[in-house]
Write a structure and sequence with these properties.
Layout lengths: L2 H13 L4 H13 L22 E8 L2 E8 L2 H14 L4 H6 L4 H4 L2 H4 L2 H24 L1
Helix pairs in contact: 2-3, 3-7
Length: 139
């Protein structure tokens, strides 16, 4: 699936929920399904700066595609990073760098997250694109 197809699927999933409590529960559930980062990568080098909670994000390239694993010490934040991993993992570095992540606004995350969580989400997106850019430059 393309990044846009995954975003469209997520927007469909979120459209089933009538209120934000249900959406938060879904985000928490996604966090429980997150491909967890290995303990050896759970160190300061992989912490995302700008998140209030601790969020670790590890990128690796397999067969020309970038895959992310992550974890967080906060359940909502873990769900948010899970959303980003779901959308961006398994694509080429160029696709990740060029991705327009319109689903964030479409599902209303920008309006319903606290300012600190919204900044954290922005930091996650920025870090994932930076990793992709670095991996793309590396060749």
């Amino acid at each position: 699936m393309t990044i846009n197809e995954i975003q469209d699927e997520l927007m469909d999933d979120f459209s089933f929920f009538t209120d934000w409590m249900e959406k938060y529960e879904y985000i928490i559930q996604l966090g429980k399904e997150l491909p967890l980062i290995s303990e050896e990568h759970k160190k300061d080098d992989y912490i995302i700066k700008g998140c209030q909670s601790k969020v670790w994000l590890f990128p690796e390239v397999k067969d020309g595609k970038v895959y992310f694993t992550a974890d967080s010490d906060a359940i909502i934040t873990k769900g948010l990073v899970s959303l980003m991993v779901k959308v961006l993992s398994g694509h080429t570095a160029k696709e990740i760098v060029d991705a327009d992540l319109y689903f964030i606004n479409q599902i209303g995350l920008n309006e319903h997250l606290s300012p600190t969580r919204a900044n954290g989400l922005l930091s996650m997106v920025k870090q994932m694109k930076l990793y992709a850019l670095a991996l793309q430059a590396r060749g």
